Amino acid sequence: MYPPGHVGLTALLFAPVVCWFRLRGRREAARECLQVGVALSLLPDADKLLPGLVHRGITHTLLAAVVAGALVAVGFRLARPHSPGLGGESTVVCYLVGVAGVVSHLVGDIITPMGIRLLFPGSRTVYSLDVVRASSPTANMLLVVGGTAALLCTYSVSASGPTVDDTTADESAAGRALSSRR
């Protein structure tokens, strides 16, 4: 996939996670989760810019996803452990967001004819579903539209119902109203 396709696919795959954060009243964590996911979904293609790295080499592996997850977990939990954002989530949640960001890129590349060496350096086997060419403008645009639609649905669903924080605030207001009547 090209960068727009990777971003769209990441939005599509991260929409349920963003919804989960928002329904829990963790809007800042939802925003940071999506930002980290999109950034990490583009990171594997940095191998095109770095001398000595082969495109779709080590940066396009599950090992890279595991390392990214660890860096996100350590970075967010150490730098901002009590923030309203991703750092305020558990280490496991931060780790999974990091892994998922790179994995979303891998999903975008494994569907192309070129494929990826998913288990490198343990195996040199190339995995490819050969569904669509990475350069397909139609496929890239459909992923952008699909990801955007998924996020819009997520935001409309999570904005319409009460969140954990909203429920707590409503209960606190009701408690204050009762105590002021006494």
Strand content: under 5%
Helical content (DSSP H or I, runs of 4+): 55-70%
**Can you summarize the main beta sheet?**
none
Number of contiguous helices:
6
Which secondary-structure class do the elements indicate?
mainly alpha
By DSSP, the count of extended strands is: 0
Stretches with pLDDT under 50, minimum 5 residues: 166-179
Please indicate the count of domains: 1
> What is the averaged pLDDT score?
89
Distance between the termini: 65 Å
- Rg over CA atoms, rounded to whole Å, is 20 Å
Shape: globular
- The helix/strand series, from N terminus to C terminus, equals HHHHHH
Organism: Haloarcula onubensis
Protein name: Metal-dependent hydrolase
GO molecular function: hydrolase activity
InterPro entries: YdjM-like (IPR007404)
Question: Describe it for me?
Answer:
The chain is an all-alpha fold and 182 residues long. The protein has one domain. Helix content is 64%, strand content 0%. It is built from six helices and no strands. The longest helix has 24 residues.
What would a concise description of this structure say?
The chain has 6 helices and no strands. It has helices spanning 3-23, 27-42, 62-79, 91-110, 137-160, 164-181.
Produce the secondary structure layout.
Blueprint: H1 3-23, H2 27-42, H3 62-79, H4 91-110, H5 137-160, H6 164-181
Keywords:
about 180 residues; about 65% helix; globular; mainly alpha; 6 helices
